[in-house]
Amino acid sequence: MWSFLRRRALIIILVSVILLVALIGFSMRDREEVSLPEELLKDTIGWVQGVFQVPVRFVTDFFDDINQLKTTFEQNEVLKERLSEYKDLLYEVQALEEENEELQALLEKKDADSLRDYNVIQASVNGRSPEPLWMQQLSINKGKQHGVRPNMAVITAEGMVGKVTTAYQFTSDVQLLSGFDRNNRISVLVQGKEDPVFGLIEGYDDKRESLILTIKSTDKEVEKGQLVVSSGMGGVFPKGLVIGEIESVEMDSYGLTKVAYVKSAADLYDINHVMVVDRKMNSPEAPNPEEEES
């Protein structure tokens, strides 16, 4: 009995193998039409693949987009960092160019004829006083050890900016023209086509942002645009230092004195490098020291 069953199973296996080989051979040959089972099988497989391909493709594209977005963000950050470096470098180059121009102008000013009779000490600004004294005081990096003394004139290439108030061993304090008052007057002259007109710088008008010039000679004509320079008659400040230009002229409330408003030739707000000017021993002394603070 068992022998018959074994033979029957063997026969079934052989027949199945033969049918499988026949089906494989039948399906591999070139045909224009396929059988219904093959068609159903192919369509079923294609439909299942389509069903699973849509979410798989969506997930794959989603992660691809995230990777691209991350890459773009990283590249953007790198570009921003490089752009910031380029901007910083550009600002440094511009600052160096401005400083070079300022130093060159100071060097030319130092060699000018108007300063040949005076000792000139070049200095840089260390800092400025906080508000509200920003426009009145600053500190420079030269002091007594470099020959700086109180009441020496301080100038830039454009003109005078103030005077030394206190000299320490290695630094000094400077009072700007915008901080001058009647106790810190400057004897000046107004240059014109005719004889120069003498006057005194006696203060600073914050509203007009101009120096206040009083002129005793009311018969002298003073017009807008005329140049104002130091007269040197006070015995402290050198003669010929540019102060500024006349902006407007008025009579005082009593009608006895002309009051002119002078726009400073030097930029009193942006000061980086200055020169301290001291007269040499053989410079002439003026006879009237009361006109200018010693």
Fourth-tier CATH superfamily name of the largest domain:
Rod shape-determining protein MreC, domain 1
Specify the CATH class of the largest domain. Answer: Mainly Beta
What string, H for helix and E for strand, traces the elements in order?
HHEEEEEEEEEEEE
What's the alpha carbon Rg, rounded to whole Å? 46 Å
Termini separation comes to 143 Å
Number of strands: 12
Taking pLDDT < 50 over at least 5 consecutive residues as the criterion, the unreliable ranges are 281-294
CATH architecture of the largest domain: Beta Barrel
What is the spatial order of strands in the main beta sheet? 1-2-5-4-3-12
Task: Please give the largest β-sheet.
Answer: 6 strands, antiparallel, barrel
Q: Helix coverage percent of residues? A: 25-40%
Strand content: 25-35%
Structural class: alpha+beta
Q: Total helix count?
A: 2
Please give the oligomerization state of what you see. single chain
Give the overall pLDDT as a whole number: 78
Shape: rod-shaped
Domain unit count: 2
CATH fold title of the largest domain: Thrombin, subunit H
Family: Belongs to the MreC family.
Function: Involved in formation and maintenance of cell shape.
Domain Rod shape-determining protein MreC beta-barrel core: 127-277
Coiled coil: 69-116
Q: How does this structure look, described?
A:
Residues 69-116 form a coiled coil. With 294 residues, the protein is α+β, with helices and mostly antiparallel strands. It has two domains: 40-111; 113-291, Thrombin, subunit H, CATH 2.40.10. The chain contains two helices and twelve strands, in the order ααββββββββββββ. The strands form two sheets. The protein has a six-stranded antiparallel beta barrel with strand order 1-2-5-4-3-12. A six-stranded antiparallel beta barrel has the order 6-7-8-11-10-9. It is rod-shaped, with a radius of gyration of 46 Å.
